[in-house]
Amino acid sequence: MGYVLDGQSFDGLLSQLSKEYLIYAPVRISGKGAYSDTDLVAYGQISSLDEIEYNEKSRFSPKELIYPITQTLFYFTEDEYKEPAVSQKSIIIFCRPCDVHAFRRLDEIFLKNGDFRDSYYEAIRRKTVFFILECAGSFENCFCVSMGTNRVEGYAALLRPGEGQVTCDVDEHFAPLFARYGKPAGMTPRFIEENSISVILPEEIDKNIFDHQMWQEYSSRCTACGRCTVSCPTCSCFTMQDIFYEDNPRCGERRRVWASCMVDGFTELAGGHGFRKDNGSRMRFKVMHKIYDFRKRFGYDMCVGCGRCDDVCPEYISFSGCVNKVSSLAGEVKKDD
Amino acid sequence: MTNPYRPFKAEILSVLPQTGIDFTFRLAADIKVESGQFVEVSLPGVGEAPISVSDFGPGWIEMTIRRVGKLTNVIHTLTPGGSLFIRGPYGKGFPVDRFTGRDLIIAAGGTGLAPVKSIVRRFYKNTAELKSLTLLAGFKSPSDVLFRDEINIWQSCINVQITVDGDDTGEWKGRVGLITKLISGLPKIDVQNTEVIIVGPPVMMKFASQEFFKKGIPEDRVWVSFERKMCCGLGKCGHCKIDDTYVCLEGPVFNYTAAAQLTD
Amino acid sequence: MDINTKKIIKNAYRVTKKRGVTALRIRVPGGRLDVGCLDVIKNIAETFGDGTVHITTRQGFEVPGIPMAKIPQVNEAVAPLLAGMESAIGVEIADLNHGYPAAGTRNVSACIGNSVCTFASYNTTDLARKIERLIYPNDFHVKIAVTGCPNDCIKAHMQDIGVIGMVLPVYDATRCIGCEACVKNCLKVSSGALNMSNYKVKRDHQRCLGCGECVLKCPTSAWTRGEKYYRLVIMGRTGKRNPRLARTFARWISEEAVLKITANMYGFIEKHIDRSLPKEHVGYIVDRAGLPVFREEALQGVGLGPLGRVEDYIPFGGYENR
Ligand SMILES: Cc1cc2nc3c(=O)[nH]c(=O)nc-3n(C[C@H](O)[C@H](O)[C@H](O)COP(=O)(O)OP(=O)(O)OC[C@H]3O[C@@H](n4cnc5c(N)ncnc54)[C@H](O)[C@@H]3O)c2cc1C
Ligand code: SF4
Ligand code: SF4
Ligand code: SF4
Ligand code: SF4
Ligand code: SF4
Ligand code: FES
């Protein structure tokens, strides 16, 4: 069902929704970019339409709202493990089509992989509703069309912000509320059908590619900074940390904190033994996870083509460029056979 | 929703020092374990780590823990009556049923003996279940030898060969040399009817397996156990992943043919 | 030829090797200029000079080969530069047609700053222009430069007043993944002010240089930029007598405090300069009057804020040539 809401009505709607939901959207945080006098676009709580940063891609993805960077799993005294209370409120996340697809990938790991469901993730995930921000145009480095993540179906709401108003396509559940604040309007969702970047995904990857010299280039270029994985909406790795309180060492917390296969220490074992010490092999491991390993396990690719890895790499390493290199090699290796 | 990260408290029934840095802890725990599986062991505020179950029985499990860092240092200060927190068991163990009626050769390097101890204990008494059992174990030095008491008992029933890389005590009467020497020195193997388990540090596993292949053992009769960094044991944290394989789910025990496919 | 050399020197000309020939120094506050000004400079060099310009250490231009007799015409030709680079930024120039009204206080130079450089903590061009507005025209011999960060590309340490950009790093522990990139980098390239404790980062403010390297290295924006601050290094100099690097006088102070201390320094010179000398460089005045006197007068009416810190004693060092 389509509706159009002016700014004020939309804010009224948000204020109504906020009684039941915590509402998050990409926002511009002034002066918080890494370089001085630049802004950071990241997810934050909003109460008005103006706060939504619609014209720029967020540096960080919305995954941190459901899967926080630092998450306390237990509070403990010496022999009791207590779980932290979870907020009763549900969550609305305004995000792009690719980001919604990314949550499906996270679901695969946290709710399905192995025999157990991750209760922390699930507690927040099951209360989350996505409001899709329609993309007016493809951003730099996006390749969602190649990844098939440009379209979304079965959303709660899809919004098209315009001059002082928002046109929305809403499901049955939210329709009455939108009807209260807006006017009926025709709304046919428009999805991005073309990106300036496209990738070709290799169907089969010969083992030879794992040892191919193409990865050596990244050994010298990549600095193992981890930005690509931190900003990626589909990376899900974490490390456990136990801490004790400085003022009361008998009490403490068990936390999990995001980890990155690009960063030192990810595979380190007792005695300093580790795997993939060289950055080129980390690049290979990451890229293969995104376009091959995950698919072998779950039947579809992990990467959603948001392009954030390319946006944030300080060394200007292009993930999509690398995928295309792998594909052309995969073709060659096949021909050689 | 059950919380898969919640551990339970398990009382320490006994602590048996094996070497200066390896202690065996027996815990009261009523869990069903397969040989080769591991549990996540933790102490609140200190940390959590994957540890192989080295032996188990009704109402108890044993783990042989080496002191290497933050958590294991503190665990080593604990005494009977104290407790540890555990969750699990996790992972795939050894396909013990497959071994029945066959010749089983176990090659263990150092602490690699821990995850296979329960297999030796099960079969050394019931030798009828197997055609034969051979245990080859290599340690760095005489002071690193694990499960001495058990080895003495096993020796009376099965073929046990122990070697050390070097003798720092001057009192070692046994063999000196790498475990690969023990393997090459084995009498003729009935290759069609033998299963091999190799557990130890990566380099040891690599050379030991090559030695067995030289003897004509087919790759699919060799079983190895991998050690990788692990933070969950549940297929969530991603640390143990190699290619599309999660060592905590599909491993730590792998058939050699599967293990050989994995590229770190 | 009868020329008052004292007067032309104050007019930004100099006596040169060749009798009757002078060179003109053109100020470029902040070292940034509209390329339109280059046309004017080119025209002066071609019309009155020898067709070349020299780029000075202080980010100005020197036009050599000008006949002294042509000074009045050159001064008229300079008007668009005064208008474009001085009046335009708010410097009061009484008469645009008489050339530079003073030359003692040198051009305020600046590193490229945060319009380009990733390290810079602030817009150096803007601050240089604010300082120019505050202190020019003035005959006292003073050298000032501003630099975006403690890398000090402009060599603030060679100035009477060097302004070094700082930023207060703000830490959000919940965003930190414990990668230690900031800790390792701070130790490697900066001051070793960071260390890990309980898997999170602790910053030792006493050691922190405010360089912002931690912010630049952090993959998650756990470190972000807080307030802008400045460090003042003072009384550095080259020259014959006792050359030395400037040393830190104040740190973690605001832009307002920087400007006020700079203005106060001119009051200090006014009060203590030895007028029997043809000119006296501020560094030597401070040596003579003593740092405590300078300190007291420079800080008059200056708000240091909660973080501001001023040195009580500065071991200047340097060396004597005699
Ligand atoms: C499946 C499996 C079975 C294991 N079985 C045993 C066993 O039976 N007995 C035994 O003594 N040890 C075993 N380990 C190794 C044991 O988990 C580590 O020694 C332990 O994590 C060290 O923890 P710590 O806090 O004492 O050391 P830390 O202070 O955390 O670290 C010391 C060193 O160990 C590394 N390390 C950290 N976490 C792990 C980890 N999860 N796995 C391996 N290394 C790690 C660190 O990077 C560091 O280099 C096993 C590991 C795995 C994966
Ligand atoms: S790999 Fe890059 S393009 Fe793909 S989902 Fe992650 S950040 Fe986006
Ligand atoms: S790319 Fe690396 S950090 Fe990201 S999910 Fe895969 S293994 Fe984890
Ligand atoms: S962002 Fe670039 S440099 Fe940093 S780890 Fe990723 S690929 Fe390497
Ligand atoms: S001083 Fe700092 S800000 Fe200025 S150019 Fe050098 S590095 Fe950049
Ligand atoms: S760089 Fe950022 S994420 Fe890494 S340790 Fe420092 S503050 Fe934490
Ligand atoms: S140990 Fe966490 S995924 Fe395997």
Describe this structure in words.
The complex is a heterotrimer of chains A (337), B (264) and C (322). Chain A is of the alpha+beta class and 337 residues long. Helices cover 32% and strands 23% of the residues of chain A. Chain A has 12 helices and 12 strands. In chain A, strands 3-2-6-7-8-9-1-10 form an 8-stranded mixed sheet. A 4-stranded antiparallel sheet of chain A has the order 5-4-12-11, with no helix packed on it. In chain A, a hairpin with a 2-residue loop joins strand 8 (157-162) and strand 9. Chain A is globular, with a radius of gyration of 22 Å. Chain B starts with 7 loop residues before the first strand and ends with a helix. Chain B has helices at 70-75, 96-99, 113-125, 148-155, 179-184, 202-214, 247-250, 256-261; strands at residues 8-17, 22-28, 38-43, 47-52, 55-57, 60-66, 83-90, 103-109, 132-139, 159-164, 175-176, 194-199, 222-225, 241-242, 245-246, 253-255. Chain C folds into 3 domains: 5-98, Sulfite Reductase Hemoprotein, domain 2 (Alpha-Beta Complex); 109-166 and 230-310, 2-Layer Sandwich (Sulfite Reductase Hemoprotein, domain 1); 167-228, Alpha-Beta Plaits (2-Layer Sandwich), CATH 3.30.70.20. Chain C contains 9 helices and 12 strands. In chain C, strands 5-6-7-10-11-12 form a 6-stranded mixed sheet. Chain C has a 4-stranded antiparallel sheet with strand order 1-2-4-3. Chain C has a two-stranded antiparallel sheet with strand order 8-9. In chain C, helix 4 (124-135) links the parallel strand 5 (109-110) and strand 6. The longest helix of chain C is centred in the C-terminal third of the chain and has 18 residues, at 255-272. Classes of the chains: A alpha+beta (337), B alpha/beta (264), C alpha+beta (322). Chains A and B meet through strand 4, helix 4, strand 11, strand 12 and helix 10 of A and loops of B. The complex binds flavin-adenine dinucleotide, iron/sulfur cluster (5 copies) and FE2/S2 (inorganic) cluster (FES). One iron/sulfur cluster binds at residues 229, 235-237, 260-261, 286, 289 of chain A.
